[in-house]
Amino acid sequence: MAKRVLIVDDAVFMRDMIKDIFSGGAFEIVGEAVHGVEAVDKYKELRPDLVTMDIVMPFKSGIEATKEILAFDDKACIVMCSALGQESLVMEAIEAGAADFIVKPFKAEDVLAVVNKVLAARGR
Amino acid sequence: MDRDKYRRLFIDEAREGLALIGNELVAVEKAGGDDPDKKADRKARFDSVFRSAHSLKGMAAAMGYARTANLAHRLEDLADLGRQGMALPADAYDLLLQGTDVLSSCVDRVEAGDEDTAGDDSTAELAVRLSVFFDKLKVSSGRDTAVAQAPPVPSPPSPPAPPPAAPPPAPIDVDGDVTVVRVEIAPDASAPQVRAFVVVKALSALPGFIDCAPTGDALRQKDHPEFQKNRIVLFRFYATGAIAEALEKAKVAQGVKDATVVVVDKKQLQPKEDAAPHKAPDPGADRTVRVRTALLDDLIDSVGEVLLTRARLRALSLRLSHPELEDLVDEVDRLTRELHGRVVAARMTPLSLLTERLPRIVRDLARQQNKSVDFVMHGMDIELDRAILDELQAPLVHMVRNAVDHGHEGDAARQTRGALPMMKLVLSATRDRDRVLLTLSDDGKGMSPAALRERAVAKGLIDKARADQLNDEGALELICLPGFSTAQQLTETSGRGVGMDVVKSTLEKLGGALRIHAAPQRGSTITLQLPLTVAIIQVLELDTGADSAFVLPVGRVEAALAVDDDVVSSASGRTFIKVNDDLVPLIDLPALLGLAPLSVPGTAILVRGPHGNVALRVRRIQAQEEVVAKPLGEPLSTVPFVAGAAILADGRAAFILEPQRLPVPT
Question: Is A45 touching B (CB cutoff 8 A)?
C-alpha cells in the first residue's frame, strides 16, 4: 500500500523535486504545505505516514512545526530537509523527535534510503 | 537530475526572488531611524531577503550552478547579519544590490541556454568580495556567528524542552561490565556531524546506554575538530544492555560506514547548550498558482466566442418569442456574465508587479547622476488586465528615467532656484469608473510650452503657424512627436527605440490616452489614462450609410449630440458645432472615410482627435454592444485609424475606429 506523504517546503522548486523522487507508486503525495503553520494544520488533517519538512520557511519554521506535530502525535515520522550550514538546526529537530534528515541538493537514492529506513523503523 | 524539466521553474522562481530582494534592499536602505519600530521593520525585511537568497541558493545548487549558488550564499550571509539586527554600512547595500544584479544575469544566461557559464569569473569575484566584506563586518562587530547559521527558532505555546543536563565527566575504565561500540561515519556522508547525531539519538535511548563521546551536545556544536578528523563516535553500554540492537541500529543508519564493538582508552566529555526564542508573526497568506499568459489569452478568446454566441442566441430567442427558450437564454446570459467576470479577474494583475522594479531604477539613476530623488508610489495594488501591464513596462521606465535625467537639474541648481535639493517624484494610480489613471509627477524644472513650440519649429517638425495655434496643452504634447528630442533618442533607454512618441502610441493602441501638464520651474505631471481591460469593450455602432460597419469604443466618446441648425455654424469654409461654450470642428465621418457623404444632419459624436476635440457626424448611433476586440492582420493593420475589428451580435464584422488617428484636416 502506498505510503502517504506530506511535503513541506516554501519553494515550489523543491516541492516538485521531492514529488518527483517519490513518484513511482510506493508513495502517495497527500498534501503540500508552504510554511510551518500550514504544515501543522495539514498534518492534523491528513495524518500522513511521512512528512518531509523544510527548515527555513516564513511564519513558522520547520523546527517549530516539527515540535508541534510531535507534541500532537509523538509517532509522527518527520524527515528534515536541510541545506548546508543548518546542522545545528537539524540536530535541534532531531533532538525534538524528528526521525532523520536529508540534505539539499537531494540525491534520489539517498532520499529514498532515508525515508524507507525511517518508515521501516516505525513499523509502517 | 533532469535539469530541463526544472529550468523554467528555476528561472521564474529565481526572478521572483531576486525582484523581492531588490525591493526589500532598496526599501531598507531608504528607511532610516533608530527607533524600535524602524529597527524591527529592517530586521523583517532582511529576513525576507535572507529567505529568498536561501531559496535561490538551494535551487541553484540543485541545478548544478555552483557559482550562482555560492554567490547567493554570500548574499544570504550578509542578509543574516541584517536580520539579526546589525546596522549595515552604506556600501553594503551597493554590494548586495550588485550581487542581485549579477545573479539576475546568471539567470538570464540560464534562460539563453548558456548554463555552463551561468556564473562566470565575475560571479566568483563578487562572491569573494562579499565574503571578505562579511568577514570584516563580523570581526568589527565582535560577533561570533558562524557562517549561514540561522538564528534560533520561535518559542511555541508549549514550554520548550529544558536543555539536557550534562552528564558528570566520568573517567572511563576498561571494565569487563562495559562494552564500547564504535560507530564510524562514512567519508562521503553529507553533514557527517548530523548523521552522527542521529545515531547518538537512536542509541542513547536503548537500554544499557551509559554515555558517548563526542556527546550529542558536543556534536551540536558548530565544528567539532576531533570528530571532523576521524568521524568516530564511541558509545559505552553496560554489557547486559542492548548491544546487538545498538549495533544493528547503527549499521542501518544513513551515512554510517561501520559499527563494531571495541575496547578503548580514556575520552573527555563536555556539553554545551544555548537557546533564545524570538517571535514569529502569524500568517494568512493567499495561495496563488502560476498560469501561462498564453492560457489566459486563450481563455479570454473563448469567453469572447461564448459571449458572441450568447448574443446571437438572444437575438434568435427574441425573434422566435418562445418563453422557455427566453428563460434559458436569460440563464445562459447570467452564467456567461459570471464567467466573463471571472476570466477578466484572472487576467487582472496588480500594478505593483510592473512598478516594483522602479524604485531600484530611480535609486541607481539618481546615484549615478549624483542627484537626490525621493520616489514614492501610491495605489499600486490597483489591478489591470495583464495585456495592458505588459505594454506599460517600457513606457513607465522611460518616463521615470526622463524625470530624473531631465526634470532634475542637479541638487545645487535646484537649491539656487530656491527649491529643495531633493526632487519629489510621485507615481500614483487611481480608479475612475472603467479607467485607471496613472500619474507621474515631479517637482523638477518643468517644461515651457513656449520653448517647446520654438524647438518643434526649429526642428522642422511643425510649421510656425501650426505651432502658434496650439494651446499650452497641445504645446506640451509636442514632446511626443517622433524626433522631438534627439538627445533622448541617443541615451541608453532610447537606444531601444522608446521615446515619448512610442509611449503615446502604445497608450493609444491600448485604447488609452496621454495628458501632460507642466510649467517652467513648477515640475511636470504626465497622466496615463488606461482602460481596465483591452480585450472586451463596449462600443457604439455607427450608422454611416455604408455597408461596412464601424464602431467606436464607448470610452473614447466624450459626448453625443443632435446636429441642429442652431448649433451649427460656418467660418472660412469649415463647419463648427457648438458644444457647451466651445466651437468644435464638425466633420462628416463617412466622407472622411471615403464613403458617400451624409445627406441628413444626423448625430455628432464628440471625440478627441489628432489635433484636439472634434465632432464626427454620422447618420445615427445604431446600437451599443459589448464585443471582443481583435487585432487586424496585415495589410489592414496598416490603416492608421482602424484599431482592430470585432464581430457584432448579428454576425457582421465591424471596424473599430481610433479617433486620434483619423485623417482630420488640420
Answer: no
How buried is residue B276: exposed, middle or buried, by Cβ count under 10 Å (0-12/13-18/19+)? exposed
Distance from CA of A68 to the nearest CA of B (A): 8
CB A117 to CB B252 under 8 A?
A: yes
Q: Express the helix, strand and coil content of chain B in percent, nearest 5 each.
A: 45, 20, 30
Nearest CA in chain B to A62: B153
Mean of per-residue pLDDT scores for chain B: 80
pLDDT exceeds cutoff 50 at B277: no
d(CA B578, CA A44): 73
Across the interface, which of A14, A91, A108 has its CB nearest the CB of B194? A91
Q: Which residue in A11, A64, A87 is closest to B154 by CB distance?
A: A64
Closest CA to A66 of A22, A124, A8: A8
Distance from C-alpha of B364 to C-alpha of B358, rounded to nearest angstrom? 10
For the cut 50, the answer to whether the pLDDT of residue B488 exceeds it is: no
Q: Rounded distance, CA B504 to CA B512, Å?
A: 9
Q: How far apart are CA B603 and CA B618, in angstroms?
A: 6
Give residue B400's pLDDT. 92
B10 chain-A contacts, CB cut-off 8 A: 13
Contacts of residue B419, defined as CB under 8 A and 6 or more positions apart, other chains included, come to B443, B521
The closest of B407, B395, B393, B415 to B365, measured between CA atoms, is B407
Give CA–CA dist B53/B14, Å, rounded. 9
* B520 preceded by a cis bond (ω within 30 of 0): no
Q: Which amino acid is at B446?
A: G
ipTM over 0.95: no
Distance CA A101, CA A93 (A): 9
Burial class (CB in 10 A: 0-12, 13-18, 19+), A54: buried
- The strand ranges marked E within B239-370 are 256-262, 348-350
Neighbours of B525 (CB within 10 A): 18
**Is residue B88 helix, strand or coil?**
coil
SS (H, E, C) B400-415: HHHHHHHHCCCHHHHH
For residues B640 and B637, give the distance between their C-alpha atoms in angstroms, rounded to a whole number: 7
The residues, ordered by sequence, that sit 6+ positions from B161 with a Cβ below 8 Å of its Cβ are: A95, A96
- Is residue B585 within 8 A of residue B574, CB to CB? The reply is yes
Q: Structure pTM? A: 0.54
